[in-house]
């Protein structure tokens, strides 16, 4: 019986150590309470986010896909041949399929994601669709240093769609981009999705949909704390609040306490006054010039930019020498 060689390989890039209880408690004990948005994504949270991407008000996902479909051949040409395509936060690897269609000569694809089981499942599915492609699935937190598998390609290009860069705080963003520039040396490239500044009504609607799914996504965070950290949040006593902060150039998401109340998390008490909030996420928006200025400060040279017809979303190709 003939043995078919598998074209998918699995690697551990790093082993993220997360102290969810310690991090959440620290954030809730601050004068301005906050919780990291990374804790949105339990199973239910991930399902809700997928539903958000399908909403009519939520333009980023469909707009980025329109740009990818329209300009995929230009993007493929910019990335060039003899390049390994590395995707940060690959998830289901759906968007990259559009790019792969335009890159039939690509030999190596490296999806990197923190969710090991989902990563391996997605990598296996993609490897069966693209049998000519060597798929190296790396389980890692891509915002920290990680071990890369040995590759045969001469250079690397990172694919970082989804405007995730907007969720980083300014110093975190600088650190991440500088680390990515080092990772790509020598002669690598970065294809990155960036959400743009636009009419405030469009931005506010995207995070306050009529079906209330974004509200469910935000409050589900409290469900997760109740389940995993033995907290006792009453979801009826908090409400979703999202708005565009023009001065800071970002959408802010909060959970607002509707009354004076005391909650427990583990063996700690946390008091809330009426109207006090938990800041759960920021999503920064950029003009093309603003983002290029940031990229240059982090060691990149901007090469090409692609936008939709409304100039709502941009995709940048940056290179590092």
In whole angstroms, how far apart are the ends? 49 Å
- Please provide the count of β strands: 13
Number of helices: 9
Give the overall form. globular
Provide the residue-averaged pLDDT.
Answer: 94
Could you characterize the architecture of this molecule?
There is one protein chain. By secondary structure, the chain is of the alpha/beta class. It has two domains: 113 residues, no CATH class; 176 residues, Vaccinia Virus protein VP39 (Rossmann fold, 3-Layer(aba) Sandwich), CATH 3.40.50. Helix content is 34%, strand content 26%. It has nine helices and 13 strands. The strands form three sheets. An eight-stranded mixed β-sheet has the order 1-4-3-2-5-6-13-12, with helices on both faces. Strands 7-8-11 form a three-stranded antiparallel β-sheet. A two-stranded antiparallel ribbon has the order 9-10. A hairpin with a 2-residue loop joins strand 9 and strand 10. The longest helix has 20 residues. The chain is globular, with a radius of gyration of 21 Å. The N and C termini lie far apart (49 Å). The mean pLDDT is 94.
Summarize the structure.
This is L-histidine N(Alpha)-methyltransferase. The protein is built from nine helices and 13 strands.
Which structural traits does this protein have?
L-histidine N(alpha)-methyltransferase activity, MeTrfase_EgtD-like, 321 residues, alpha/beta, 9 helices, 3-stranded antiparallel β-sheet, SAM-dependent_MTases_sf, globular, 2 domains, Rossmann fold
